[in-house]
Amino acid sequence: MSVLNFGSLNIDYVYSVDHFVTKGETIASSMLNVFSGGKGLNQSIALSRAGARVYHAGMIGMDGIFLADMLEEAGVDTRFLIRSKDVRTGNAIIQNDSQGDNCIILYGGANQAVSREMADQVLKSFGPGDWLVLQNEISEIPYIVSKAHERGLKIVLNPSPMNEKIFQIDLSCVDCFILNEVEARALAGDSEDPDILLSRLQEKFPKAEIVLTLGEKGSVYGGKEGIVCQEAYRVDTVDTTAAGDTFTGYYLAGRLEGKPVKEALDTAAKASAIAVSRKGAAPSIPEKDEVRRFHKNIVTI
Ligand code: RIB
User: Fold this and answer.
1) pTM, whole model, 2 decimals?
2) Over the chain (301 residues), what is each successive 10-residue block's mean pLDDT?
3) Is the CB of 248 under 6 A from ligand 1?
4) Which atom of ligand 1 lies closest to the CA of 94?
5) Residue bearing the CA closest to ligand 1, atom 9
6) I need a surface site. Which of 74, 100, 154, 229 has the fewest CB within 10 A?
7) Edge-to-edge, what's the strand order for the sheet holding 131-134?
8) Which residues contact 170 (CB under 8 A, 6 or more apart)?
9) Which of 10, 13, 179 gets mutated to test ligand 1 (max ligand atoms within 8 A of its CB)?
């Protein structure tokens, strides 16, 4: 069984600011860091660091070769990653405020140059039993989902960032959704109550497993193993970027290994707690051993 992550790769320009810039305002930043990022790349690195064998498919320009290097150093197979001379790599402008929160502007670049031909070429190496992991930062997601479904792949969708493109996908083909409350509301209707959101999602997608992430309130799973709740672990927040991606990668790696949902959620919660205590996207994703050692002296929120 293989895992194919068909996803974005970004150069993240992270500006440390006191507060997020508002309309008409010009503010100074105290630091600029350039990190490897993109939801796809982050999730591949988390999957691989958690012990999964993962293939990353996507596209970068020649300015983003260091992103391919980073994936390879993390043990990710990049044979399906296209390095193109014709496009520039996707990037993200990220403001990181004094509370550790962020806001992000994306430039799609090479991520939006993924074509149907490329998708066909990649998918022909995968078949029944293999897993496909997708986010919403590359082009041709509806096509990739329908072709992967035809080929019998198990489809995991993290519908992030949520926008109108998600509604072009045949969501009945999705076997597992990993999503936050904002994304859940967009799919299931407005409610502040996570239990209501989860049950609406389950009604709407009866064949799918759902993992709803709730930030400081933890996460909740609904699916074949019933309803499983997981608390978040308390840490000093430095930068929340890629916390969700770390959670996704670690959760999926646990499930691929055959771990029960509760154990996979717990490991994912620990891994994402470590990620928020560090700066950056991909560089903040912990190794498996760090996550194993994390169980000491921690408090659940
Ligand atoms: O989830 C975090 C990621 O979102 C960042 O690395 C940024 O590139 C955006 O894709």
Assistant:
1) 0.96
2) 96 97 97 97 98 98 98 98 98 95 96 98 97 98 98 98 98 98 96 95 97 96 97 93 97 98 98 95 95 70 49
3) no
4) 7
5) 38
6) 229
7) 81-84, 54-61, 3-6, 131-134, 154-157, 176-180, 209-213, 219-223, 226-230
8) 142, 145, 146, 149
9) 10
